[in-house]
Queue: 4 jobs
Job 1
Amino acid sequence: MRDGPLRVGVDRRLCCGAGMCALLAPEVFDQCDEGFVVLLDPAPPAAAHAAVREAADQCPCSAITLHSAG
Amino acid sequence: MSQGLPVTFSTVREGYFNPPPATRSLRRTEPLTRMEFADGHLGWLVTGYSAARAVLADARFSARGELKHPPVPRAATLDEAPAAPPGMFIQHDDPEHQRYRKLLVGQFTVRRMRLLTEWIEKITAERLDEMERLGSPADLFEHFALPIPSLVICELLGVPYADRATFQHHTHVWSSFGESTEDVTAAFLELGAYLGGLVRLKRTEPADDIISGLITADPDLTDEELTSIAFLLLVAGHETTANQLALGTFALLEHPEQLAALRADPSLIEGAVEESLRFLSIVHHGPTRAALEDVEVEGTLIREGEVVMVSLAAANRDPERFPDPESFDVTRRAAGHLGFGHGIHQCLGQQLARIELRVGFTALLERFPQLRLACPPEEIRLRHDMQVYGVYALPVAW
């Protein structure tokens, strides 16, 4: 499957701080000192897409949204 | 939809490692099934992976203890109680739940837990030294699996490890289905009284620990709230990981080809930890949720007030999600399993548990290249009658 540009969004109001995104895709997601999601890269490179999709799928609070751009 | 009689739930598993047989056969036919709870309530049993996620992620399903019904006969559990005291946040919905959880998630981030790795490795090495001092054979549960997470959570919370006999005993009684209501209630109250005393001590003599940190972070937290939070973190912090470490070791020893694969390539350990969480799914029953309104889940209508019990063990064996789900395969991609639950109540301490399991299994296999059971497997007593599955003891030789 061809993987075009991907735009990542996070909603910190939904975040429950489980840390799955920071575990699965640490180049794209981090946690602040209080434990909530920090988006490091809203337009990650193709090499990171699989991990980002996994993080979005596994987020227990559905706080990550993905948009295929372009 | 099933037109047959409602099922009842049993925590007795099939063999040593498989979910209860009824949940497995049900999942093949339908993701939700009518279930009769222990008090006669007619609710639902969820055995499908996607349905489990749908229920646990939906705010229309409440975690409030007073709305729920017990899946199996017993006096009390971590997940359901007559009424949730303030701070017992696994039984609150948002926004009450979020108020407590947001004070805690910063303590258990991926980054912060990784900083503990060396310290956990040291604790683990000391337990292995102790096993060697005792000599082969020894009980891996008592001397390795239970002390490691107990030492870790005690230090993090600020609970004296010297008091472990007290809190481990109360936790054990409170977690058992076989104890009387009086004994379970007494254990709950005594553990609460012990932790309440500790909270009051931290107010006057704060230290570098989570309880003291909570007192500073939110001066409005009452002693009752702090005691409930400490109760949840202490119990969930040692009982679960201890059982996962011991049962996971048992599973590896009973699957020698998987053990050999892990020994041959220690870099498989992170995947092996996830697979052990998926395959063993030690939480017997629950999470349970109560419908706050009529909700349709995968074509099935759940009526307001009906209680839904999710079988994480069954959902983690769903072939729609995990190919060849009945095989224990340390090389599989087990990520996405529901061993830590799903939704806003997903395990707070999961990143700590992952490191304890990774360090624990790795160090154990390194130290004892000839690790093996010291008794026939059928002699190992299984925790069918506790809230969390596992073994009562794991005699091993090396």
Job 2
Amino acid sequence: MEFYKSSTPKIDFPEKIRGEAKFTDDFVLPGMLYAQTVRSTIAKGKIKEIKLPELPEGYYWISAKDIPGENVVNIIFSDWPIFADKEVNYVGEPIGLFVGENKEVLHKLCQQISVIYEEEKPVFDLVNSYIHKEFTKGDFSKAEKNAVKTIKETYETGYQEQAYIEPQGILCYIDEDDKFYLTGSMQCPFYIRKAVARALGIAPEKVRVKQPAVGGAFGGKEHYPSLTGSQLAVAVNKIHRPVKMCFERFEDMAYTTKRHPSVSTYEAFIGKNNEILGLRIRVKLNGGAYKGCSGVVLSRALIASCNAYVFENLDVAGDVYCTNTVPTAAFRGFGAPQTIFAMEMFIHHVAKELGVDPLQLRMKYLAKQGDITTNSGEFHDPIVLPQLLDKAMEMSDYKRKVVEYAKPGSNKGIGMSLFLHGCGFTGSGESTIINGKVKLIKDENDHVHVYASSADFGQGNRTTLARIVSNTLGLPAEQCTMEAADTDHTPDSGPTAASRTIIIVGFLMEKAAKQLKKIWKSGVRQEHIESYVGPSYIHWDEDTMQGDAYPSYSWGVNIVEVSFDPVSYQIKVDHCWSTYDVGRVVDERIAVGQADGGLLQGLGYGYLEHMGIKDGKFRNRSLSDYIIPTFEDAPPMETAFIDNPFIYGANGAKGMGELTLVGGAPAIALAIEQAIGHKVNKIPATPEYIMEVINHDKH
Amino acid sequence: MTSIKFRLNGKDVAVDLDPSMRLIDVLRDHFSLKGVKEGCGEGSCGACVVLMDGYSVNSCLLPLANVEGHEIVTIEGFKETKQFDVLQKAFAEVGGSQCGFCSPGMIIAAQSLLSHNPHPTEEEIKAHMSGNLCRCTGYQAIVQAVEIASKKGAGLW
């Protein structure tokens, strides 16, 4: 069956392009109230007293005292309160909600409330580690002993804001079945169901979560709606009326989770034949006030710390630091963009230092099938990185340009990144922890209804998952449809995260469809549920971080060409070329859309998207001062896929959502290095930073 | 309060509302035109753009008083036109919409461009559309969609 090189119409396209798709803020219910959050104005302290203004009739104050269950947001590590009770730990931490029917009155109440604090000294530096992980590979002491010299560098990456165009929003009410019904801008309906059940102290079955149209997410709506969903459920539990809370842009940017800023130090131990005997890697992530999912982000950062290269001896450790700032959490790439940036810059700088060609050095350590991974597991599947590399270099005329642009005064640069991305949850977690399920129902008219909790927030899941089913059954695409996730009707297929939707849920869909095909009886209603069973050869020890970190890896190459303006210090991206191995492409148009969008976010991370923070307050709180790429920043992008089917993927497909982001920053940073003739060790490489390194190197 | 009169999606309307209200709130809350989206509230993202006398304007920046006597078209009105049909087919062909939140604004901005410049260059498309942000597509597909619409809809604009 030929999936590749063909595309089907997107299921939700007509309603979206016509402006008819209903997003959270488009729902208006009879008797609906609005909520506005009262937030901490200080970075750290005890709450001594809350002086409430006089509440007009029909207005309510909701706080920690109203929570019938536990005052924690159910995240991977549940240390995040739903409402701050006795203490606050960051500027913007929610203390309570005002709820009522008029937003202007709510706004006034938020200004009138007075919270008396006993201020404490906040911590903003990376000094208090609250998560530590480490592992080694090979015999590192031998590498240390045999080294004739070492090369050491430090890399920094900044915050990155998801900047989905639809801000966060959620709506809750008690439905006709007496359930707490929530709909909102979300990635993971079952996460919200669990969180709300825990907050209210009720069974998860008493909570129903349904996904409406969602205007982009990129990780930013993976955990945060568990917080706002819990808050609204507490309010509805008290008031018994529908309540909606939609953030304005400034509130979303100032107080919701972002990508972890990082500082990574890489030290190479060099042998007498200029070989890299081993690496010592230290990674620091800023986790903000609460841990949440930061432990898993750190895991991915460390597992990805050698990127697509294999070194014999490693000493890897990392920490997440507690600071009195907004908690950081999931963002497309989930820890990997930070260390992949560091590794790509480092191997390039080491090559320069050793006087060897960077491409030669990279090729020497490139991962091959059967090699031992960073975490002492094995690369089980065929790796086509050399083909990806050749193709990308041919498309971009890299070899000629890299020589030509090296001439002084060219003010042009070309940079290349090679990268991998582990698909799905860490180790054997897909089989042992998540255990995702999907369901197919064939009705009496032989129409197949596809059920999975994988939320479609632009990536096209509803189209691709339904397509996997129709292709497997040999039916026309329109005979299989997938509805939006609804916890009352869809089985828990796991969260919509970690580039797992196609490789894991898609694989399950294919198995379910094969099963349905076997038992198919025309004109009869039939149902089939399938549970995930992963490859038996995957073994992982979470405590020692040893073994196979992921079921499989996707691979890619980005090449970026830039021009540098020596007067304004501005960078213009002229052209990009990318090649990817995502197993086998399910739908080419959707895949190219992921490739273009992911790369532009990765480029933005590398040179544009700067978020400053002072005294625990973000300085950039709008889309006018936090600059994401616009039409005029977007370069022409050419993308090619190399077919490399994965045995445990739907018709060979692996993951790709995050893969397309992780290489953007190092590719553009290397291009900028060449264009300006100075090292770039920090992103975003803004004009201010470029000016700084040029002036610094002059003196 | 004096009523404010304007044309909305081909019909004459008059509203008795605070003239300083933002047009976006009038359209979404008073007329239930939910295809007009709010992404930033300060004219940065373009999700709320509507046509005023054929030009795209940010309805989050426009006070109601300013539309007195003017013609406003939102996606709800525009989707009934031949021009919309050409544009939506072009967007579908190249994948110019992912999450869809920016899409109504993109379509309106494209209409504003093509109605004044039926055969824009790539640079002109990018310059005209740069007030509309998209975080999903990387823009390339949208530029291609406008180019395709410009060719296939030749004579419509």
Job 3
Amino acid sequence: MLRLIFTRLALFVPTLFAASVILFIVINVVPGSAARSALGVDATPQAIMRFEALNGLDRPLAVQYTEWLGKALRGDLGTSFQNRVAVAPDILKRLPVTLELAVLAFLIANLIALPLGAIAAFRHRKAADVIISALATILGAIPNFWLATLFVLLFSLTWPILPAGGYTPFFENPTRNIVQMILPSLSLGLVSSSLLLRIMRTTMLEVLNSAYIRTAHAKGAPESVVLRRHALRNALIPFFTVGAVEFGFLFGGVVVIEDIFRLPGIGSLVLVGIINRDYPVLLGASLVITVVVLSANMIVDTIAMMLDPRHTRGGA
Amino acid sequence: MSQPKQPFDGLTLDIKHLSIAFQTRQGSVTVVDDISLNIGKGEIVGVIGESGSGKTIASLAVLGMLPRGARVLEGTVHLSGDSLLDQPESYQRAIRGDRVALIPQDALRALNPTLQVGLQVGEPLTLHRGISWTTARKKAVELLRSVELRDPEQRADEYPHQFSGGMQQRAMIAMGLSTEPELLIADEPTTALDVTVQAQVLDLLRNIRDTHGTSILFITHDLGVVATLCDRVYVMYSGAIVEEGPVEQIFSNPSHPYTRGLLDATPRVHGTLTGLKPIPGQIPLPDARPVGCRFSDRCAFAGAECRQTPPAVTVQEGHVAYCVKALELELEA
């Protein structure tokens, strides 16, 4: 068990390295020029050359990457081309916003997916299953930005009960923070619940058809005991392992949702970085998101392993 | 509620004219067709047949655990005089795992991978006797010891994957025995085991019968196992019983061509492998059975009279073959 966790930790570093290389290449291959974005369309060729020389953009990519990596290892992610703000401190300041949004959304998604998925499997091919499966399909087909816009329209404009955006740090005003987070995390969580729900339904179905569930029935255990004692834990192990992937997908939505609700998180930083070709910002923000997703996957995998005695206890 | 009783005649299990059908899109398909079967107290009765003969479905009906889509068309099932069919689920649940226990085929799959073996073995006691988990675990250790598992105290806290195949099956048997049931239904419990372990498990089952007087319904496709363990045997083919009788008689004097075919297709110590005669053809699907005797399309002796429903021919006391030519064949043999 400990060895498995160490193996995962050891994989962390090469994964991160690979991610940084890929990000660096993709960012530089995509058309568009940082200098033009920073200086405007009317910039003279001289000004552009000066800008590129100043920021080291005229050197080969390999040299640029090595320099960036050397600094990054010391915690320096460079400064923004656009406003000369140091990237690393800016990200650190924004990280809690994004983490709160992602964790809340993931919690909401799981709170919807776990019970509904289990019920759908339990009532396989009955009315409840059909309704829940249809709901999952609809939720999965809705783009989260559309849902977010609809929510703002309904709950901020038509019935003004929730704010349409803004952010207050949790420790400054917890109530205000939660109220502001409801719509962003709901629009993100509802859409994410679709995949999780279908995963839960499938794993639960598989478990319910297994021989040990038949054994439990043959012992005369009532349905509730069969589900609670025999089915749930066995369904949760594969659910967590597969579900962790959804946490990564969630960050695709974070970028857009933060922008819609004007949340000062890392997602909005990524968006600004893309629009302005602000490479240091884009690279730094993407890498921190990679670290968050990798860590989340590792935590979830560890939980799944702890639930499974086949990992924690050796063979005969 | 009052349970319909029939006069208790000493039979632990009494199945009469049981028919079970699956509802499919093409209509109703009868998978168990008018079978009657009984087991006396302390008797070990084998039900032998190929896969698809309906033997497992019939046993699930006894447990009230028919799969979705299957239902009992007619017939009665009595456990020591108490009717088991047409009872509310709560009644059947109270019987299951208490008075009737199931020992399944693949013990590893039948054990919950995330629950300690001791708790699984003791679980029927918590469900039916209302005892605490602590007491149930202590009882489980005793039960594991009684099925000759070494180090039961340590083993009780282990998980199924830490057990060998034979140990897993012993654990399943211990679980089945926990409530001292009247009837054990063993559904091919030795199929997944090595031959030596298989022999140990069969010994164990025989000991259980001898010490507790437990009746055992033993479902198998293995003639050798039937010969070593069972007192009486029912031969099933395509949803119906084709021959029944004491084990020695069935083996020495098989009177249904199908039983004879089964015996001829089984290797023997003094035979040669080239002497093995497989039965030609395949077991018919339930919706494609021949008219009359359902074995007639594979039977070397079939004639025009086999297109009628085969009569029950008593070969000897307690030995019945459902074949119009049973006595003729016996003369031939």
Job 4
Amino acid sequence: MEDKTINILEQYPNSGNDSLIPILQEVQDAEGYISEKSVIKIGKHLDIPSSKIFGVATFYNQFRFQPLGKYHIQICRGTACHVLGSATVLSTLEKHLKLKAGETSRDGLFSIEVVACIGACGLAPVICVNGKFHAKVTDKSIIEIIENYRKENDESEK
Amino acid sequence: MKINFNIEVNNQSVEAIKGETILDALNRNGIKVPTLCHMKDFTPTGACRMCVVEDEITGKLITSCSFPVAEGMKIKTHSPKVVEARKTIVELLLSNHPDDCLYCVRNRNCELQNLSDELQVRERRIIGKKNNYNIDNSGVSIIRDPDKCILCGRCVEVCEKVMGVSAIDYVNRGSQTIIGTAFNKGLNVSSCVNCGQCIMVCPTGALTEKNHFPEIREALNDPAKTVVIQYAPAISVSLAEEFGIESGKDINGIMNSALRKIGFNRVFDTSFAADLTIMEESAELINRITNNGVLPMMTSCCPAWVKYAEEFVPEFLPNISSCKSPQQMMGSVIKNYFAKTENLKAEDIYSVSIMPCTAKKFEAQREEMTTHGISDVDAVLTTRELGQFIKLYGIDISKIEPEVADSPLGTRSTAGKIFGASGGVMEAAIRTAYYKLTGKELVKFQIPEVRGFEERKETKIKIGELEIGVAVVNGLVNAKKLLTEIKEGRTDIHFIEIMACPGGCIGGGGQHIGSNEDDLKSRMKSLYDIDTNETLKVSHKNPEIIEIYDKFLGEPLGHKSHELLHTNYDKRDVLR
Amino acid sequence: MMKAKNNDTNKGFLIDSILNNLSDKEISPSDKVKLSLIRKEKTDKPIIYIGAGTCGLAAGADQTINATKEYLISKQIDAEIIEVGCIGLCSSEPLLDVQIPGFNRISFEHVTGDKVEKILNSVFNLETPETDILGQFPKDKNQNWENVKPINEHPFFAPQKRVVLKNCGIINPVNIEQYISLGGYQGFLKTINSNSPIEVCDLIEKSGLRGRGGGGFPTGKKWKFAFNTKADQKYLICNADEGDPGAFMDRAVIEGDPHRLIEGMAVAAYGIGASKAYIYIRAEYPLAIKRLKIALDQARKYGLLGNNIFETGFDFDIKVKMGAGAFVCGEETALIHSIEGKRGMPRPRPPFPAVSGLFGKPTIINNVETLSNIPEIIARGQEWFSSIGTESSKGTKVFALSGKINLTGLVEIPMGTTIRDIIFNIAGGIKNNKKFKSVQIGGPSGGCITEANLDIQVDYESLIKVGAMMGSGGLVVMDEDNCMVDISKFFLQFIQRESCGKCIPCREGTKRMLEILESITQRPNNESPNAALERFKGILQLERLGKVIKETSLCGLGQTAPNPVLSSLKWFREEFEEHIFERKCSAGVCTELRTFKIDVDKCIGCTICAKKCPTNAIIGAKKQPHFIVEEKCIGCGTCEEVCKFDAISIS
């Protein structure tokens, strides 16, 4: 089987510490998350102790250590979104999916992530599902949005 | 050239040297400023903010550990603003601290406790939620309790910059930050080499050694057991500090006496086994040189180094001497030779060692360190623990008379004794190798080129027609540098002594916490004073060594030696 | 194929006749025509511009684009679709402009996919549609749309002075030709041909430009620190790690006009003597990253980046580094650590990055807005720039307006404009005619401004005077339905998540402050008689802790972290006291302080509320009215949600 991490590392010959974060980003893009095995491979390639890599990876919001759900829901918790009720949107979503932010549902369908600010404050509250934005979300519309994705998935599986 | 000028501190003029930090200037001039994250000779991290002083010109608080002195500077070190800031910081640290000082191994030797006292924290103004992290008990030598950790980062610095290991680092961010291993695994599967230097720099009880008092006490109380104890060369010159006696004072006799009063049936000196190590190791060195063996040969006395080699540089494992360390040689000799002479069964002997080292706890339980399935050494105490153990048994060391160690296995040469300092093994080995190769003793036994605290010491030694290159390094990060040079083709070195801890065992991770550079120097000086003052300066003249080869071992590298005193190591897979 | 060839012709023309011909010599009439075509002032076929910045896409611009494409195909109209950045009026997204040969460009708002057909139908019939018109862009010799106001008379745009945002939403962000044709990169080339680096630093210093990232340090002065440090290598870093929740101007500038930033960086690098630069940009801005990379490639192809730029001997190139999500990396030393591949934890200064920064080399870090001001200053001179603004703060400032106002988005106003003008004139006042409460400015480092201070003129000093700060320019407006205790808590939660954890005051101190605020917004069961007093003591600790955190924290994040709380506490102390003593939140935001009551007349005793109550606080027999045991209730509101008979309400 092809090793995605190794393929990525081959793009970074003779690299130093400053390539660590770009490599982690690419590995996560390719594999969905940062696995222990990847960390060890990256460490060998860059000659960085795995504790340091883990230290770096746990410092930044972007990196995760378990796979995401099929639908990755990012909820913006920036100021503008908060002022317009994103806390309620989040709690409704958590209740609806019986899932806490940072978790993935058991069926692997949904995961929730809280993000600092997507930068679409003018259209707050904003959520982003697999890169697609939804603006001016309310505690009512969030359920609709999620159920549409569930339907989309059910149909694709038929 | 040093450029000096004056700065104003608390309305008084104080001399400062261009380029130094405010903290250095203050300390030199007798002004103490509290610190937590600061470590001498390390780049200041500015994490703890305890060392803030007030810049009178801007009215701002600045960290004295990182801020360079400047002409015209006016500072206040204990203004109300400064004191309030420092006190609040300590209160913040206390606000979610476990508060179990009375039960903490660092009680009365804790920097946080001291600061709280110095700053007169007398009421609980800030109450925080406790963290309740899990204690990492997985390691053989070291226990981590993240709840007590104040995240000063000193352990991380030492592990990386002195040891080159980086088993631990900061994990997570913000108030979730902890010091942890990769993937928050236990220390046992990490690359930790158990050197214990992290414990030495930990201001609180977040890092401690694993304690074996109950097992030892049980053995002492078991009439069927013969409980024997050995102590490493560095112990007798280090133990004094545990009792507030001047550093470096050699209290070997008193220690012997105290150990007997506790109830140990035999008191042996590991320095004897150091002499034995020299017999074997110098023979091995000669053998490697004359028979085109793998060179450079590297010492194997330091278990932290051995584990480091297994993990990080397994390609050098064939270079490592096959000799067991003195602790393990002694252990093996006790359970085989001593048992035989005393008509005891090995399993009826409980063998304890006192080491200035936490890695020795790891070494003692290694699979290689057994004979016929029986551990050579059953339990290891650090210097610190010995101090506690003596107190536990109510022994007032100021009132007891010195005694000598038991014989055999209690007589040593000074060559065995200087093992405790970086360069000591090298010097002792050269003394005996010289004799074995030339049939003559060295005219001058001292080899000053390999003594001292420098990170690396190199010299050439002429032994008859032969000139050998030797190197002595302490601090594993320095070992790494030297090994890289060798990998890149250096061939002029034949014998390398590697000790993980700065200064060698006298600076070991099991030593008194809170000692400074001068204390370490005193310990080293004390060892070399013994070497100067005593007459038995070479291992091969130690009468008990001669006796054990006559009666039991035969000859160095002989069959019996191989069975009991030698071993080898394999590559070790850890999370690194 | 034709298109590529066409572009190449333009490239030759632009390089030879424009970029290599920087004297003020009159260009030939035929070249003028060519230029106006590249500028899109004139067009020979219809052009449809669609605002496709992140905000536009969030509002549905992708559907608008698809609908437009379908429309053009079905009507067999040969027209060009250009995806532009954001013009700033987010609340009117999706925006669609149409430019028909010979006519002014006309702009429409709220053009969701379903409206495309109707609007395009009337425009192509040269009829002015009835609704959704934003305005038109008048140009000489073009025909006007009747009854359509020029866009610069729109109340949102009229008071603005657009320097940094000049091209945003107007031009094609990934078309270097258009940027050059509008004067782009000419200032840069003039500078490296005829000015010495120190002259550049001088010019910027004299212009009065100050850092737009928060601190407001004079930019030219900062450059001189690096200029005066001798080193074999220096670096320029553009800080595009816009982490401040509520600010998005950097994103909009990069999405809408990336070449402006690149040109600004090139000038800055020349001034300080850097040959390498990084743009450190949030990974959360994928579109900006994409456009930036395209723009950088274009600039390289034109020889505007690379070795020996236009044979001047100046070497310069830019790398894009993606941040990985850490607000603290907006701090200079943390950002440097992050580029170096380390945890983004700040280090003590001195040494300052200008002396020892990235990889130990002198490094200047400027933010996107600061650097995007440079091309215009170079082109129009320091006097022009310093004529805008107030005594201490020159030029314009971009603000990101959001929250409870009618119009949201980006505005660029001259320094010195009043906050009241921004909120009530430009942004059209408070939504739904609610009462204004405060405006949070400067994000987690800033503070709030109340009615009493609305008439202050925006500049660095005046904002600090009222306990706020410029920060990166996020303006979040709050109305009577917002609770200031909740807002304070929100910012502390943010800081808690984003503190690097290195220094004790910030790590532990902000945590304790948050815990104190939580204690006053939570309803504990079995409250002891002096609990209110304890909470009040907490408030006192809040102020003391805040002071120490500000004075002792290692970096700017910690040094400003208590600001939002201290500011709210200063202006809205009575709201805190209400929470503490009356255990009440007038705005109804702090849900745990709500008390619920059951209307006995409506309750039929179905027991569903009792079953769902997480704390068993509801009692009552089947088919009998139920009651809430207040001591047990945590105010979660589950009972209200599940009651099918509207029997439960907030009392």
